[in-house]
Amino acid sequence: MIDLYYWPSIPGRGEYVRLVLEAGGLAYRDVARLGEDEGGGLEAMFAFLQGRRGAPVPFAPPFLVDGDLVVSQTALCCAHAAAKGGLLPEREADRTFALSIALTGEDFVREIHDTHHPIAVSLTYENQRPEAARRASDFRDNRLPKFLIWYENLIENNEDAAGWLVGPRMTYVDLGLYQTCRGLAHAFPNAFDRAMGEAPQVGALCRAVAAHPAIAAYRESPRALPFTDGIFRHYDELDPPSAA
Length: 244
Ligand SMILES: N[C@@H](CCC(=O)N[C@@H](CS)C(=O)NCC(=O)O)C(=O)O
What we know:
By secondary structure, the chain is of the alpha+beta class. The chain has nine helices and four strands, in the order βαβαββααααααα.
């Protein structure tokens, strides 16, 4: 049994880890969503973050506790779960590149988050609206297309020509791209739609992940939370209908 720790009310970064656990068919507990009578709740998460469970102390959720191991940082959590769930690439070079992709994916997530919180995470969006407007404008025009075209080229140049980012079959980094695209479709439906015109294979990859039986079943389950006020937020003013 693996324990996942993440904020209980948002999909957020925890969702990247959850998808790997789900697709890998791994038994896990989403600890902060459990009741305190089951050893869960936020208090159980803070016990780790505040060092009351001893070393190693993660800086921030998500993190996994797997036996004696405490694994933090989203990309590392995903790689750890992927190793257990058969979702790592087989070749060593592909595994290394997959980790690079996962880490780059976290850079992308950070940039997406910073469109609505460009100045400080401790301030509300309403307290940084002008800066968010500038940041989101550059994100829509430059960063969003740049990241999506990079992913598109990875699929295009994959020697196995299988429609995945690395190697001949779905791996954990495909799940990550799928989740980021879901989030972007929610947060920036207009800009994402425009950018996806240049990334048809990314679209196909996302549809293939969505059709994976474990992912399709998860999406129908109460374990899958809707986007609310986490990383992927929609503000009309940050996503105008036309590029101009
Ligand atoms: N690079 C870290 C970022 C972790 C992170 O920012 N977690 C958020 C939730 S999505 C958090 O609770 N951060 C608290 C903080 O930074 O103080 C990762 O990918 O895991």
